[in-house]
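Deliverable D2.4 — example input (structure tokens):
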């Protein structure tokens, strides 16, 4: 049984796959992906092909967090839609196998862009890659949740009201210091919540360029990854999440577009991206966008606070990066407060 987030009990995994995965012909290598902060993820190489194992971290976890079973279900449901996802193989909910639940999916080869500046990519291809990101997002929000069996994947009612309540509780459960901007933001998001407009769609919850795999040769998306926060909710939360990320500084830390000459790089403005999304979905425009943006800054602040707390507790997936991320909680909170004024 694996005791931490950095290693995997290869013998236990191999025995389980031998009994449950058709065509499995033995492990030849196991490598941990270093990018993720939530659910530890490993590349499994066999004699004939590659798989990915994604698991819950061991130890005491926040309620409803790290839901690998939901990740597995939603990606399997999207297999025959216009939303590209990896093929799902197995879900193991027996903690006795490796210490926590996990699932097995195909490894999807291709390109992953950690930053929207996409160094080394041509001006033309940068624009096409971001437009493909836009296309996939619009396609996700047009998925017929009844047809794919996901109508019960999230409760009915005001999505933002529900999410603000949920993440406020998560934040309080992992709070390590008093942050006035975060306290103000939680109160303001409750007070200024828009009325429910009836849009009930599948949402990703963490839709970013670095959560996508693109074809190695073309600008086509091969798979959208990291579905832990997916649910049935409001599509504008996903759209605003993209714009939120772009407000961050450019570079490896912020992974945003702050300070970049977007036009020179072939990258769209926020307004152009939103307009393309609206055109694809047949929308005339979006009201209350400042609120949706503020909500995303708030949720990200709550998420990285949880990552920071796990680092302090000793069960973070990437402890060094988790400690560094914790410094950004007040920054995201203040961005959220500022966004409400837009």
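Example output (designed residues):
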């Amino acid at each position: 049984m694996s005791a931490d987030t950095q290693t995997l009990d290869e013998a236990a995994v191999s025995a389980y796959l031998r009994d449950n995965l058709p065509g499995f012909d033995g492990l030849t290598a196991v490598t941990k992906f270093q990018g993720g902060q939530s659910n530890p993820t490993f590349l499994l190489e066999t004699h004939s092909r590659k798989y990915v194992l994604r698991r819950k971290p061991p130890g005491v976890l926040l309620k409803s967090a790290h839901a690998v079973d939901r990740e597995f279900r939603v990606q399997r449901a999207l297999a025959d839609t216009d939303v590209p996802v990896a093929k799902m193989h197995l879900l193991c909910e027996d903690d006795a196998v490796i210490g926590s639940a996990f699932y097995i999916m195909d490894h999807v080869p291709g390109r992953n862009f950690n930053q929207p500046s996409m160094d080394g990519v041509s001006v033309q291809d940068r624009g096409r890659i971001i437009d493909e990101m836009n296309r996939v997002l619009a396609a996700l929000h047009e998925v017929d949740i009844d047809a794919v069996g996901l109508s019960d994947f999230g409760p009915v009612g005001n999505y933002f009201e529900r999410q603000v309540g949920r993440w406020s509780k998560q934040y309080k459960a992992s709070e390590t210091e008093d942050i006035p901007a975060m306290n103000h933001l939680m109160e303001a998001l409750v007070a200024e919540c828009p009325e429910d407009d009836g849009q009930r769609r599948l949402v990703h919850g963490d839709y970013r360029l670095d959560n996508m795999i693109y074809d190695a040769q073309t600008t086509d998306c091969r798979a959208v990854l990291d579905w832990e926060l997916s649910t049935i909710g409001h599509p504008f939360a996903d759209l605003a999440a993209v714009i939120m990320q772009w407000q961050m500084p450019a570079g490896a830390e912020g992974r945003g577009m702050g300070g970049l000459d977007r036009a020179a790089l072939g990258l769209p403005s926020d307004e152009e991206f939103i307009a393309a999304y609206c055109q694809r979905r047949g929308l005339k425009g979006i009201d209350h966008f400042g609120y949706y943006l503020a909500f995303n800054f708030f949720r990200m602040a709550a998420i990285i606070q949880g990552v920071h707390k796990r680092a302090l507790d000793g069960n973070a997936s990437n402890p060094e990066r988790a400690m560094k991320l914790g410094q950004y909680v007040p920054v995201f909170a203040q961005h959220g407060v500022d966004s409400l004024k837009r």
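Strands lie at 27-32, 41-46, 50-55, 88-92, 102-106, 201-203, 212-214, 221-224, 231-233.
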